[in-house]
Sequence to fold (407 residues):
Amino acid sequence: MSSCDLLIRNGAIATMTAGGEPYGTIPDGVVVIRGDVIVWVGRAEDAPSDLIADPIEVLDLDGGWVTPGLIDAHTHLVFGGDRAGEFERRLSGATYEEIARSGGGILSTVSATRAADDETLLALASRRLGGLMAHGLTTVEIKSGYGLDLETELRMLRVARALEAEHDVSISTTLLGLHALPPEYAHDRVGYVDLVCNEMIPEVARLGLADAADAFCEGIGFTPAECTRMFRTATDHGLALRLHADQLSDSKGAELAADHGARSADHLEYTSNAGAEAMARSGTAAVLLPGAFYFLSETRRPPIDTFRAAEVPMVVASDLNPGSSPLGSPLLAMNFACVLFRLTPEEALAGMTRCAAPVLGYADRGVIEVGTRADLACWDIGHPAELSYWIGSNPCIAVVHGGRVRR
Ligand code: NIG
Ligand code: FE
Fold:
C-alpha cells in the first residue's frame, strides 16, 4: 500500500493558523494527504519517512507556496444579462441609488434572469465560476435574489447547486429573497414579505436548496422590521442568517444582524462603531466587499479599526454581481481590501481562508492542519503578501480540492 495519496513538497506553507508565525509559515514544508484529508503537515526534515516514502502522486511546488484554498463567502454569480449600460450612466453622473429607484439596477437583472432558461443561466455562471477557480478558489457561496418569485428563486438555487456537479469546487447557497421589491409587488410590500416568509423560505428549506438566508437592509431594499420578520422565519426553518448591511446608509443593519445572531453582516461602509461593537459581542463576522466600494466609487470606509480592535473576524469576498461588483478575481478583491480598506496582506488572505470558512458553516477548512479537508492552492510566489500585491495577474499554479489536484 502506498504511504499516502498526495504529497506536496519543495516549497513553503502558509498554514494560516492563528496565533503563531505570520501566515502560519513553515518555510520548507510538506503536506501529506490521504483521501480528502490532510494527515500530516510540517517541516520537510521532520516528515515521518513511512508517510512520504511512496506517494501515489506528488505535487512539486518548485520553491513556491501552498495556502488553504480560497473561499469566496459572498457572490451573486448566477444571473442573466449584464449592466454595462448602467455603468455608462453612472460614469455620466447617475448614482446606483437613482438607477435603482428608476426601475433599473437589481430589477433589470431580475428581468434578464427570469427570461433566461436554466441552460443559459448555468452556462453563464459556469464561465464566471471557472474564472474564480483559476485564481485558487475551492469554496464559494452563491446567492439567489434575481428571481424574486418562487419559481425563479428555486431555479437560481438549483443552478447554483448544479455547478457543483460540473466543477471541482464546494458550493454553499443562500436564499436572498428580500433583495428588491419585484414589479408585481411594487404597491404591496407586505404581500412580498409574505411571499418570502410563507412560501419561499418553507419551500427552499423543505427542498434543502439553501444553507442560509440573506436580505438587503437599506433605503432602496428592506426595512429592519421587514428583515426581522424574515430572520425569524428563516431561523424557524433552520437556515443560518446573513445580511447586506449599511452599504449605502447607516440602517442599523449591523446591530440587526448582531441581535439575531447572524453569521455575518456584509458591506458595512456606513456601520457605526456601536454597530461594530454589537457584532463583536454576538460573534457576527464582518464580510468586507471592496469590489463594490471600488466600483461604486464609494468614499466612506467600513469601521476597520474598530473591527480589528474588537476582534471581529474580517472576511474578504468578491461580491461578484452585475451591478455593484462585476469582479471575477478573489485575488483582486484581496488587493482592493489592502489598498482601499488598509487591511494587511495577511488579514486579506485570512479573510479569504480562515475567517471565511465559519461564515459558511464550515469547520473543516480555511487552514492547513492535520484533520482538515485537503483544499489547497499552490502559487508561484516568493512571499504570500504577493497574493494581495500583484494587480490582475494570476500566480496560481495548481489547486487541490478534496485531495484531487487541478492544474
Ligand atoms: O451586494 N446591495 C445589494 N446587492 C448586491 C448588488 C446587487 C446588484 O446591484 O445587482 C451587492 O452589492
Ligand atoms: Fe452582495
Q: What stands out?
A: Residues 70-359 form a domain with the TIM Barrel fold (CATH 3.20.20.140).
